[in-house]
Amino acid sequence: MKNNSASNTFVFRHLFKSDLKAEQNIYLYSVESDQVKSIPIGNDIPISITWSQDDSSLYYAAINLNMNNDSEWKDIIKYRSDLTCTIRHIKIDNRNDMPWLTTDIVVLPFLIGELLYNPIQEKLIFSSMSFVMQNGDDFQIYSLDLKNVSSIIKWTRDQIIKTNCPTNTR
């Protein structure tokens, strides 16, 4: 995970607590003020984080394992094919007593592998991923228009298996 902000003012880290029911935090270290800020994120487990164009906000994709009912797992191996992923936005404002505001952007019916911010078009670009590859549709690339979050565009159409085919057409 990239850990520096756009202007290298902040460095972030997520310290994962083994107790999934414990409150999780994202820590921001300010290079300028030499201070650490802790942003509580509840039971979210961030799987990808990206900064916006400046240091005013960041976006993260997270799963929330606390939403899963422990009684539903009766087997030794925990596997769930319908995990959802939430993209959240953290607005950072150093002038207020509450220096951040977290808002939900979208809940997706798949896990996110990579998350990038496109400052020119104000879009998030992300890839889907799966813990278990069941078919070629498990890996796709999407974009999300931040001006219209209901507009999610799927960029890929081919199955991942086709990418391993030789390109030589002799």
Q: What's the CATH first level of the domain at 43-67 and 81-159?
A: Mainly Beta
Biggest sheet character? 4 strands, antiparallel
C-alpha Rg (nearest Å): 18 Å
Treating each run of at least 4 consecutive H or I residues as one helix, how many helices? 0
CATH architecture of the domain at 43-67 and 81-159: 6 Propeller
Helix and strand element order: EEEEEEEEEEE
Oligomer: single chain
Compute the number of strand runs. 11
How does the overall form come out from the CA principal axes? globular
Task: Enumerate the spans where pLDDT stays under 50 for 5 or more consecutive residues.
Answer: 160-170
Strand content: 35-45%
Write down the CATH topology of the domain at 43-67 and 81-159: Neuraminidase
**Strand adjacency order, main sheet:** 4-5-6-7
Describe the structure.
Mean pLDDT is 76; it is low at 160-170. The protein has no helices and 11 strands. The N and C termini lie far apart (40 Å). With 170 residues, it is mainly β. The chain has a domain at 43-67 and 81-159: TolB, C-terminal domain (Neuraminidase), CATH 2.120.10.30. The strands form 3 sheets. It has a 4-stranded antiparallel sheet, with no helix packed on it. A 4-stranded antiparallel sheet has the order 8-9-10-11, with no helix packed on it. A 3-stranded antiparallel sheet has the order 1-2-3, with no helix packed on it. It is globular and about 45 Å long.
Outline:
With 170 residues, the chain is an all-beta fold.
Per-chain topology:
Elements: E1 10-14, E2 24-30, E3 35-42, E4 44-51, E5 57-64, E6 85-92, E7 100-108, E8 111-118, E9 123-129, E10 141-145, E11 152-154
Antiparallel strand pairs: 1-2, 2-3, 4-5, 5-6, 6-7, 8-9, 9-10, 10-11
